[in-house]
Amino acid sequence: MPRQRKDFLLNPVVITLVVVIAVIAAFNFYQNMAKINHLENQIQKIEAEIAEAEAKNQKLKEQLENSDSHEYIEEVAREKLGLVKPGEKMFIPVEENEDEDEDSKQKK
């Protein structure tokens, strides 16, 4: 009886079947690992977006809390609207254009 079992395991059909099953299992394992890596990358990207949104939300909350203060209103008026207090002079920096730089180089 033991001899027949040993012969059965050495049968080329059984060996081929075992190899095919092993190859299929390895392929499925590789596909699952690739899917897991892809999902982990998506999770990291989404967590980064969440952190960015939370930081933006915190900044907006701070702006909302400060929106009634006179300092904040003055800051917005100066930066966004370009307003100045009476007696102050506003200086606007002027940058040279690239075209003007090329013209001055050609004249020299």
Automatic annotation (TrEMBL):
The keyword Magnesium does not apply. Keywords: Cell cycle, Cell division, Cell membrane, Coiled coil, Membrane, Transmembrane, Transmembrane helix. Residues 36-70 form a coiled coil. One of its GO terms (biological process) is FtsZ-dependent cytokinesis. This is Cell division protein FtsL. The chain crosses the membrane at residues 9-30. GO terms for cellular component: cell septum. InterPro entries: Cell_div_FtsB, FtsL/DivIC. It comes from Halanaerobium kushneri.
